[in-house]
Predict the 3D structure of the following.
Amino acid sequence: MELYHPQLMPYLESLVPERPAAMQAMEAYAQQTNFPIVGPVVGQFLYLLTRVSGARRVFEMGSGYGYSTAWFAMGVQANGGGEVYHVVWDAELSRKARDYLAQLGLDSLVRFHVSEAIEQLQRTEGPFDIIFNDIQKEDYPRSVPLIKAKLRPGGLAIFDNTLWHGAIFDPNDHSAQTEAIRTLNRMLSEDPDFECSLIPLRDGVLVARLKER
Ligand SMILES: C[S@@+](CC[C@H](N)C(=O)[O-])C[C@H]1O[C@@H](n2cnc3c(N)ncnc32)[C@H](O)[C@@H]1O
């Protein structure tokens, strides 16, 4: 389903500052291989959330070959340094990410783990300022309690693909992924511990701030 006016995303993309050559190469690789990266418009938004929140510790779940990681790492670097966890279960993608992030001069900020992301978050000591989730969608709802436990009060949980190409609006679509996204959006929006906005950028980005108690 086409979610936006056809000129909207190209227009927003034209406003994103030019990226370093290695990031442009990552964008070109995604186009050639049809790999689902967040893209420059959402990438710039993730960078901005990192800067606005002053985040120094970011945990990324389902990192691919490091494109979204690069945006977080640029934000953390500009905030004075810290660490960004890159977690993906595919060793070849992890190797590719190391290579790209080294080309960008950001690899010293990144902790690389080849692992299932929920298990890795469980094993990793918190708290985190930001936890970004881009794993297989059917696992989004079950990741929420752990994310909540690992975020600092005032920290941000961010979920990509929360409009799921508009499939969530189709009353006949009961696939596991579509149902999981519907559950996640409702569950976070109704959770009194979070304050949320679903931002209709690209495929939808849900931003949830954990309240101080
Ligand atoms: C949508 S892509 C990530 C793109 C990345 N966030 C970006 O924008 O550059 C998701 C990646 O995470 C991997 N993945 C999915 N579920 C995972 C899980 N539970 N644990 C670890 N990796 C996972 C997928 O195989 C894929 O490589």
